[in-house]
UniProtKB/TrEMBL annotation:
The lineage of its organism: Bacteria, Pseudomonadati, Pseudomonadota, Gammaproteobacteria, Lysobacterales. It comes from the Bacteria. Residues 63-180 form the BP74 N-terminal domain. InterPro entries: BP74_N, cAMP-inducible_BP74-like. This is Calmodulin-binding protein.
Length: 181
């Protein structure tokens, strides 16, 4: 095969550089094929982790659903707030926190909220945007509110109340992973 390249080479280009270019192109094709195969295998493996971690069609993110309740609320019964997470690393971190109930008291949920109900969280007229959800231990007071306070002041969200729609619920306690049909 090397002789064939020598016959077709352009003036001023060496056979070694042509061979290197061909090997590079071949390597890139192999990497693309392997990457696609590994991606498929990873999606298939993740889909089997739990019923709540449902794989969607190709090109879309996989989403897991979790819930938290507010602690320390004396006047109202606790209501679950269900939220979606589309980051596989965060999904595993949240599962670890839920499994270790003693740690769940120190770790809380934060993220940006959007006004509007979601099918997985119909009780509340707002929801956490999945791509903004994160865990925290300490956060500034300006983003703290209970779901009930947000519901009561929904028109003020994004202004002086929860600037930038950032919500960090200091009293949140992760409860469980939720299976959403």
């Amino acid at each position: 095969m090397l002789r064939l390249w020598k016959k077709q080479r352009r003036p001023g280009s060496g056979a070694a550089s042509q061979e290197l270019a061909l090997k590079g192109a071949l390597l890139m094709k192999i990497k693309a094929i392997m990457s696609a195969a590994m991606g498929f295998a990873c999606v298939a493996a993740i889909a089997c982790l739990s019923p709540a971690y449902a794989a969607t069609t190709a090109g879309q993110a996989t989403v897991a659903y979790f819930s938290f309740v507010q602690t320390g609320m004396l006047t109202r019964m606790p209501h679950e707030f269900v939220f979606a997470v589309d980051d596989p690393v965060l999904v595993e971190q949240i599962r670890d926190v839920i499994a270790n109930s003693s740690a769940s008291a120190d770790v809380h949920i934060a993220g940006r909220i959007d006004i509007g109900r979601e099918a997985y969280n119909e009780e509340w007229p707002f929801h956490l945007v999945p791509g903004t959800v994160h865990l925290f231990r300490n956060a500034p007071e300006v983003c703290h509110a209970t779901p009930f306070e947000i519901e009561e002041h929904l028109a003020e969200v994004g202004g002086a109340f929860l600037p930038g729609n950032e919500w960090c619920s200091w009293n949140s306690r992760l409860v469980r992973e939720v299976a959403v049909p």
